[in-house]
Amino acid sequence: MAGNNHKSKKKQINRAFYIGRFQPFHNGHLKVISEISKDVDELVIGIGSAQLSHTPENPFTAGERIMMISRSLEKLDLYTYVIPISDIYRNALWVAHVESMTPPFSHAYTNNPLVSRLFSEASYDVRYSPMYNRSAFSGTEIRRRMLAGENWQQLVPPAVVNVVEEVRGVERLNQVSMKGDIESVLEY
Ligand code: NAP
User: Fold this and answer.
1) Which of 73, 112, 138, 141 lies at 20 to 30 Å from 155 by C-alpha?
2) Which domain holds residue 82?
């Protein structure tokens, strides 16, 4: 019954993994994902350092980052799973930690040397994910512009502008970036 066996064979879904902190999600990330979408059926997007928020380097919560990403990808012809991944203190166990939180995937896209090393050691196929116009499309540069009152909106998808406005993200970033205020409040 080789014919039947052949017919019942399901198409293998080509599902990949891509992780970032997305503080915030920007046009560089969007371009990377739209390039990846040409090569895969489904993409698991890991929100790294999910436990962090309300700091100058990590102003947005995992939930806010989910909103930014899900809304920005609405028009992209790609099935995605956006999953928060908290950091753990043991790098050697990190891939197993990721696997415990995500649908199975066969390969990972990253430029992060540590992430690349950990996935390679766990026998995953690791692929390079080129970033575009890196000097502008950078989370650090966008957070700097938010603090300086400069135009950051042009560097992110419109959906991200809406989310940042909805949660009053620039006001939050300004407040958590103030130095010395906590000390003066505690002294008082
Ligand atoms: P990241 O800390 O978010 O980003 C590091 C830098 O790489 C940022 O400047 C980022 O820019 C940049 N970057 C991101 N994607 C890029 C690309 N395609 N091309 C060029 N530069 C790029 O690190 P990540 O690799 O994006 O995310 C890794 C996440 O995994 C982190 O949250 C990390 O904590 C987590 N992790 C945890 C463990 C553990 O818990 N033991 C181990 C390994 C990794 P933008 O700011 O513009 O995105």
Assistant:
1) 112
2) 13-177
Task: Give me ligand 1 centre to Cα 20, in Å.
Answer: 5
Which residues are 16's β-sheet partners? 43, 107
Q: How many domains does the chain have?
A: 1
Instruction: Classify residue 129: in a domain, yes or no.
Output: yes
Half-sphere exposure of 17 (CA within 13 A, CB side): 24
Q: Which amino acid is at 110?
A: T
Residue minimizing CA distance to atom 14 of ligand 1: 20
**34-65 pLDDT per residue, tens:** 999 999 999 999 999 999 999 999 999 999 99
Asked, for residue 144, whether it belongs to a domain, the answer is yes
CATH code, domain with 134: 3.40.50.620
| DSSP one-letter string for 84-120 | E----S-GGGHHHHHHHHS---SEEE---HHHHHHHH
Nearest residue (CA) to ligand 1, atom 25: 112
Ramachandran angles phi, psi of 170, nearest 5°: -70, -40
Question: pTM score, two decimals?
Answer: 0.91
Residue 67 maps to a domain: yes
Protein residues whose CB sits closer than 6 Å to any atom of ligand 1:
19-21, 32, 48-49, 87-88, 91, 94, 110-112, 114-115, 118, 129, 131, 138-140
Nearest to 136 by CA among 124, 150, 120, 119: 150
